[in-house]
Amino acid sequence: LVIRPGRPRPRDPREAHEEVIAAPRPRLRLLPIAAAGVMSRGGVFLGVDVGTGSARAGIFDEKGKLLGSASSPIQIWKEKDCIEQSSTDIWLAVCTAVKSACSLANVAAEDVAGLGFAATCSLVAVDADGSPVSVSWSADARRNIIVWMDHRAVDQADRINARNSPVLQYCGGGVSPEMQAPKLLWVKENLQESWSMACRWMDLSDWLAYRATGDDTRSLCTTVCKWTYLGHAHMGQWRELDSRDMEACGWDEVFWEEIGLGDLVEGNRAKIGRSVAFPGHALGSGLTPTSAKELGLLPGTPVGTSLIDAHAGGVGVMESVPEAESKADLSDEEAICRRMVLVCGTSTCHMAVSKNKLFIPGVWGPFWSAMIPEYWLTEGGQSATGALLDYIVENHAAAPLLANHAASQSVSIFELLNKILLSMAHEQNIPFLSALSQDTHVLPDFHGNRSPVADPKSKGVICGLTLDTSEKYLALLYLATIQGIAYGTRHIVEHCNAHGHKIDTLLACGGLAKNSLYIQEHADIIGCPIILPRENESVLLGASVLGAVAAKKFSGIHDAMKSMNAAGKVVHPSSDPRVKKYHDAKYKIFRSLYEQQLSHRSTMAQALQ
């Protein structure tokens, strides 16, 4: 269990499985509100975020101030391209984190006015009773989640994209193996018994809301972004203020039949979603008595329709603009469309909104109402950023020594690397720190390229390696990797602006946003100011916004954002023209690395014919 501030205490996941599996499993159903007047007593909002490695919970007031947060680790299984988790384990971790966050914030159950869930866009399989259905070669029933970053379905994605269905224009021209249709097709083709047992296929955040309320209404966020649901089918019919679940009329049944998954749209699409709702819509009758007891909250506490974690980060930060950075000549509607949010964690998602739909090759979207209701969302992304930095550092010969030095100084490995780079820049008397990497160039596609070339087969490249195994050389590799990631974001921003966006301001949140070097390199390379939020836990804040909207504290998501978002530090690009010249040159090399890879791929394919 982790209670912030403090250090993590490991939890044995086997104990978690035994504890939950031994308990009788409740049958999920809609129940009436059991605690009248809960809302009149409540005053704070709870956000829950299930990431790749942990479940976290945060308590916020109506101004978006964090009162307390806690986290609990979750188990993950990795075998080559197959990456799996357990919904049973995740729910236990959620309950642990929620109880601990409430305790830390000194918040009683009756004080919580509403809650919302955010999670990775992982795929959950359950049977008619809500019990887990295995999605693993191992047939282990605990392993009923295909994690978002799982790439087992690359072949299925290629075959789906070869059909050129009209729905694909709303996800950048093609589905990614990280989306749900390819993963579903993989299960049908490889795990027939599981396929026949599963009665519900759900995005993880939708499953969490279903587990809490018994209502399996799906979010426009998850269905539109990951399931090819055409959210704009509801344009002109419903507005966010209508606040109701809507019949799911945006499924393209022809598409599902063409790709071999027609059985999912039989029975009024019961397995993938009969009804959808705007994020923040109050689900069912709130928490069921069973889930309320498990979470330590009151039955009937309102629960908002969910968001994917990155999208919750967007909701938690996009209105965090200080007065000095606001543009007086633009309306609120125009100003928000000039911003892009970088949600920087294991991967990075790039979120921008517009009032008009913009089709951008290689970039997901346009998605209607997938993040901020009644706006179109453009979603770029890099599949490995924090994960890539961890990989570069942990697999270097100097990693154990570096970890010992960091521990002895009571700093993180990345803080120590930043200090080493500053020392190197001073020793070498170079004009600016970035120039240390002049001989080292990184293409960060170690887990494929999500945007803007949309090539899951792309590979990472490091140009400029030597036999040096020192901590200083590891620091150079770390710097060049950060720069490679930032050049990838510059490529995404330029590509979006070339296709109709007018992005000139970035906002950043997530774990990597706490790294000052990471943010400064991005500002210098992209040439935009980067605004950091007042609260570090932007994804949790975005999830709590859902609870605030469900509790009727605000009229809608955007209204709540304006009250609960707040700006912190603003990082400006360097004014030194030498820095811009340097990064422009390195950016050209960065772009050439992928072109060279394509050439190499073609040469070898011809040699093997």
From TrEMBL:
One of the GO BP terms on file: pentose metabolic process
GO MF annotation terms: D-ribulokinase activity
CDD domains assigned: ASKHA_NBD_FGGY_D-RBK (cd07782)
Residue ranges constituting the Carbohydrate kinase FGGY N-terminal domain according to the UniProt record: 45-313
Record's keyword terms, sorted: Kinase, Transferase
Gene Ontology, cellular component aspect: cytoplasm
InterPro entries membership: ATPase_NBD, FGGY_C, FGGY_N, FGGY_RbtK-like
Superkingdom field: Eukaryota
Presence of keyword Transferase: yes
Domain Carbohydrate kinase FGGY C-terminal per the UniProt entry, residue ranges: 341-551
Family: Belongs to the FGGY kinase family.
NCBIfam families hit by this protein: 5C_CHO_kinase
Protein name per its UniProtKB record: FGGY carbohydrate kinase domain-containing protein
